[in-house]
Design brief:
By secondary structure, this protein is of the alpha/beta class. Helix content is 42%, strand content 16%. Helix 4 (73-79) links the parallel strand 3 (57-61) and strand 4. Bound molecules: zinc ion.
Length: 259
């Protein structure tokens, strides 16, 4: 079986030093490919490094909306120069209005989001979208500056009614730990509303540990618990869910799955 963790911050301070162990443990549990997104200049450099070290890790570079205000112009431009054969996307980029209440700062997030979508289009790469408390604004930006090479709504937390809007823009819908929470109605409904050929699974490690590890540090092998929840919701076997979500991730990110 092959499972892909489509979103795992191996470059995060809490995981970086134990990355080898985490990647090996995940591999033993059939989580054989990991996509490592970035959120800052520093984490983008680390992602490049990790993908160079491990054959089964691919990466994305980008400035997370919450990091936009902490990034110098020089760093912002330098992130765009980071590339290698294993760069598979630009992200995570998007809007986070949960942590940002200031209107001026929100406008800066929107500008950086648009600019990074254009950059992805120039590089012919998909985007990894972070959206928190800003689902309508996110859709508005994506309609204005269309991602030409697809992308993914990472850890989708929007309503089921909007799934189709994102799919119509060529995006995939990815689910993480919240899908396993007993009281999580919204992600379960959104998962039901997503066609099988547009579903991805992720951990968002070190965050969002699935049930029963909620609140603890997450790791890529735990994507198996998300996969299990997804299989249950879609009423398919885990093997089928693994095959479908891996094919989807491989199609979106253009990664080889013959590992
Ligand atoms: Zn993330």
């Amino acid at each position: 079986m092959l499972v892909i963790d489509s979103h795992c911050h191996l470059n995060d301070d809490s995981l970086f030093l134990k990355r080898k162990q985490l990647i090996e443990e995940a591999y033993k549990d059939d989580v054989k490919i990991i996509i490592c997104p970035s959120d800052s200049y520093k984490s983008s450099l680390r992602a490049l490094l990790i993908a160079g070290e491990f054959e089964n890790v691919y990466y994305a570079v980008g400035i997370h909306p919450s990091e936009v205000k902490n990034t110098t112009e020089e760093e912002y431009n330098d992130v765009k120069k980071i590339k290698s054969k294993k760069l598979v996307a630009i992200g995570e980029i998007g809007l986070d209005f949960y942590w940002e209440k200031d209107e001026k700062q929100r406008k800066l997030q929107i500008e950086a989001f648009k600019d990074q979508i254009r950059h992805a289009n120039e590089l012919k790469l998909p985007i990894i979208v972070h959206s928190r408390d800003a689902i309508n604004e996110t859709l508005k930006v994506l309609r204005e500056v269309k991602p030409l090479y697809g992308g993914v709504m990472h850890c989708y937390s929007g309503p089921k009614e909007m799934v189709k809007d994102f799919i119509d823009l060529g995006l995939y819908i990815s689910f993480g730990g919240p899908l396993t929470f007993t009281n999580a109605k919204t992600p379960k409904e959104a998962c039901l509303a997503t066609p099988l050929d547009r579903l991805l699974v992720e951990t968002d490690s070190p965050y969002l540990s699935p049930h029963p590890f909620r609140g603890k540090e997450n790791s890529p092998k735990q994507v198996r618990l998300v996969l299990k929840a997804l299989a249950n919701i879609k009423d398919i076997s885990e093997e089928e869910a693994a095959r479908i979500t891996s094919e989807n991730a491989a199609r979106l990110f253009h990664v080889k799955t013959n590992l």
